[in-house]
Design goal:
The structure is a single chain. It is flat and about 150 Å long. Among the domains are: 41-132; 547-698, Methane Monooxygenase Hydroxylase, Chain G, domain 1, CATH 1.20.58. 73% of the residues lie in helices and 0% in strands. By secondary structure, it is mostly helical. It holds the Pfam family Sec10_HB.
Length: 700
Amino acid sequence: EPFVADEYIERLAWRTPGGGSRGGEAFDPKRLLEEFVNHIQELQVMDERIQRKVEKLEQQCQKEAKEFAKKVQELQKSNQVAFQHFQELDEHISYVATKVCHLGDQLEGVNTPRQRAVEAQKLMKYFNEFLDGELKSDVFTNSEKIKEAADIIQKLHLIAQELPFDSLMDFCCYPLSSPGKYHDLECQLIQEFTSAQRRGEISRMREVAAVLLHFKGYSHCVDVYIKQCQEGAFLRNDVFEDAAILCQRVNKQVGEVFSNPETVLAKLIQNIFEVKLQSYVKDQLEEHRKSDAEQYLKNLYDLYTRTTNLSSKLMEFNLGTDKQTFLSKLIKSIFISYLENYIEVEIGYLKTRSAMILQRYYDSKNHQKRSIGTGGIQDLKERIRQRTNLPLGPSIDTHGETFLSQEVVVNLLQETKQAFERCHRLSDPSDLPKNAFRIFSMLVEFLCTEHIDYALETGLAGIPSSDSKNANLYFLDVVHQANTIFHLFDKQFNDHLMPLISSSPKLSECLQKKKDIIEQMEVKLDMGIDTLNCMIGQMKHILAAEQKKTDFKPEDENNVLIQYTNACVKVCGYVRKQVEKIRNSMDGKNVDTVLMELGVRFHRLIYEHLQQYSYSCMGGMLAICDVAEYRKCAKDFKIALVLQLFDTLHALCNLLVVAPDNLKQVCSGEQLANLDKNILHSFVQLRVDYRSARLARHFS
């Protein structure tokens, strides 16, 4: 434990008799002092003893340090001597190695010419056998030594090739040249390679291929290998899957057989594309090229897609440096004759198919399309002007048919979607935006112009005049369906067309075309404001038929049991239906715009209607109840201006019942203070008691 002086002294004092109060014993300072003095002396003696021991150990340590330093110096000297001996030995070894290398070079210089002489002697011996026309050597007669024979024949063939033809004939060694023993052996090697391939002997195939590598017929060996690889490989209906499996199998084997596996594999793939695939594609496409455009386009897209997918799989293999270009050229060689006029076939089919879809729909409705107007904006404005003049000409009765079909739209959009997909896959990248724009133009022509625009034109022509009774307002149904269809059109524009033209100048052209379509449709939808005239006309008919003069001037003022008139009930019911119909038919700001216009006209109608009657006190109360119901109906519009107009009208109706003394106070109220005094006066004049001098005096 760590030494603490205070604790040590405490323990010493505690152990000393009389050093503490233990056991009631009195404290004895003299005895404690004596104990401390004795203990100090003992500590001094112990310190001297320990100090002597420390000095002895230090002397011993210094002695051993000197001995160790001396020993280290001796070891360093021994190490230096050993290092010098090692350097001498290394120099001696280097000298001996130099001598050995020089001797090896001399031996090689002597042996190489000797080996060449031996090889030349052997070749001369074999050459003599060819001169004699009798091949006696075992290397030519033993079929197992075909590799050695091939090497000899190759060398003799090269020698024969260097000799002039006349000398060759003089030496009678023409068999060494083509077509002689060289080609006989070459054919024999190829036959051996073929047999080994059929037996599946990879090692033998590798040996024969290595021998044939120096022969002219090596390429023929590769051709034979490629031909035999394809035997039995294309037995299923899916030639593309068979080709992928074949290439994967050959890729594992070709590296074990040939020294240039990438070249052999590339040649196999080229053969598959130019023979198998090209023949298959031609059979599939030529059958429908002139007779069935739809099937032709589907087959072309499917075959091109499967070919490019196969190409992607083949990219995993080693085919040389630029395999991407190599495979692209192979694909192009197959499809170039079909892709050159692809877009013309596509546009022709799309045009015919779209026209057929529309015609089939109109035929199902027993409808013969008719020309309605010229379609120009000026003509539309002229028709609007004509519709506001009475009497109106006869309108077209559509019998409630909108001439818009979700099925037709889905079919047209589906055809166009498939066309965009084919265009993306089959078009050259430089022609892609242009081709996509042509497809988009077809969609605009048949969906927007021939279908939606025609339905709007027909719907506009079918809007009845404002004075028609029991008119059916089908135009809002047309608007509702046209709005839904255009959302589908816009979705396809963003999802399928935009990716194809987003980075090309055609983008602005397509956006402008889309904008023009929207503006043209909005103009025709604006013309549908005539529908509001019909609504107001229907309200007028209801009011004229249901509202009676006695409603607001009852014969018995004390026996009025109704809260509001029957005309008010029917008008409010009709208005609520039309508001709901407008909300279901339109969206966005168009809803608020149309409802505001309808609300303002509705207010004007009620305002003018109320001014046609005279009001007794109880009749005025009933008019206030009617206006309150109209105001409740106006809340359904959710348009602040409309609600404000009916609030003001409600305040005006209070003038019909307020006491004469309070007229001025009511007229100066918050809602009526800003109105023209003539308007206020016109409502006061509707009171039956207006002629009384008292009322005229209070209002003046």
